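name: query_chain
kind: protein
chains: 1
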Amino acid sequence: MDILFKPFIDHFSTNQKLSENTIAEICNHLSVLDLDKKYVLIKENQRHDFAYFVIKGAVRSYYLKDGVEVNTWFALENDMVGSLHNFKGNPSRETIELIENSTLISINLKQVKPLMFSNIQIANFINAIIEDYALFLEDKIYFSQMMSSIDKYLILLDKEPQIFQRIPLTYIASFLGISRETLSRLRAK
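structure:
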């Protein structure tokens, strides 16, 4: 197993022991990508056959609303990046773009999905990935719908302080649903 694949395999196999054959079979459908910031991984309204695990770097997701980018989430190291719509073979509803030069593990969904029907360990592994991603998205929905912008800012500052060092303030302001000026005032306090 490539040493860069180990964090990905370990992260999603904590509740199960994968056989060496299963690990090898999964690794056959992974590749490591080194990509520059601003690279668009997934485009809104397009099908895409890959999901990604962030080894190093920062990623954002956004939708276009009346021509304006609305940032919906950020991913950093050890986060999954992708679109569940793509997993189902449908076009993505979001655009996913690198914010920093990044190293990612690329997972070929088209090749891995059929393996779920022939190897229960792979099915359980993929289910662990989907479960982790669904929890991530549920947290983001709760965060965006149930909290005021100030509460969102305070939670980000407490739980994810590195975001303020690595993500442009314009993107953070969009994510919080406030202007960049309001964010600057909040940061000054």
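note: The chain has a mean pLDDT of 89.
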